[in-house]
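Researcher: Please predict.
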Amino acid sequence: MKRSSALLAKMRRQRGGHVAAPFEYLDAVDREFLKAYNEVAVLNFSYGDAGRTRVLDARTKELIAVALLVTVRGDTTQQHMRKALEHGASLREVVEALEMAMQVCGAPALEFGLRKLMDLEPAK
């Protein structure tokens, strides 16, 4: 098993312990790009202190991420739904973000997002 770089260790700390597998691959192939990518992600998703200087709060950023991710059926859609909820978004707000995605990309985006959200909810 390959050793984790200092950059990946830093990213894990910033993200609460998780880094997606594609970024681990990118670390091995092009660490310089991953470092630049991470600097932007830190600002965009309020990881650590750098995000405190941004205008949009973490809840709003995560709702935007959810709306964007469902349009491309992104692998991290549920992760960002969870984060939006953790940052204080209501279930209704997440659903409205999905509805906005439908306005631009159609019903398949809404359906994809609703399925991901339903999978997050505890069994009734």
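Model: Residues 6-53 form one domain.
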